[in-house]
Amino acid sequence: MTYVNTAKCVGEVYAACQQVCPQDAIHFVRAIPAGYPSEGQPWMAIDPARCNDCGKCAPACPIGSVVEGANADSLWAQINANLGPVFQGQRATPRGTGEAPRRPDNTLLSR
C-alpha cells in the first residue's frame, strides 16, 4: 500500500510532505499537464514505486491532503502513479504549515 496525494493539494503545495519523506518519493509538479484534472495548477505527486509506506508524509500535511492507500482516492492514486516518476527530483519551496490555505475549501487541521 502506498500513500496518495489528493486534489486538496492542488494550488496549495505546502511541501511539508516532501521535507519529511526519507525515500525522495514526493515530487513538485509546477503545473499539472493538460488532460488531467486541475491542469496548469501546482501540486505534489507521490511516486508509488519509491514510496516505502513509512507514513511520515500524511501527518506532515497541514490540510490532510495525503491519504493512505490507492483505494482512498483511486483517481488521484492513478494521477500520482502517472506523474510521480515524470517529475522525479523536482523540489518545491516549502510554505509555513501554519499559513492559511489558499483555497476556501481547505482548512488547517488542528494538531
Structure explained in plain terms:
By secondary structure, this protein is α+β, with helices and mostly antiparallel strands. 17% of the residues lie in helices and 13% in strands. It has one domain (3-83): Alpha-Beta Plaits (2-Layer Sandwich). It contains three helices and four strands; from the N terminus they run βαββαβα. The strands form two sheets. The protein has a two-stranded antiparallel ribbon with strand order 1-4. Strands 2-3 form a two-stranded antiparallel ribbon. The model has no long low-confidence stretch (mean pLDDT 96).
Structural class: alpha+beta
Query: What is the CATH first-level class name?
Result: Alpha Beta
- Please state the second-level CATH architecture: 2-Layer Sandwich
Largest sheet: spatial strand order: 1-4
Order of helices and strands: EHEEHEH
Can you tell me the overall shape? Answer: globular
Q: What is the CATH topology assignment?
A: Alpha-Beta Plaits
Taking all residues together, what is the mean pLDDT? 96
Strand content: 5-15%
Total count of domains: 1
Largest sheet: 2 strands, antiparallel
Q: Number of helical runs?
A: 3
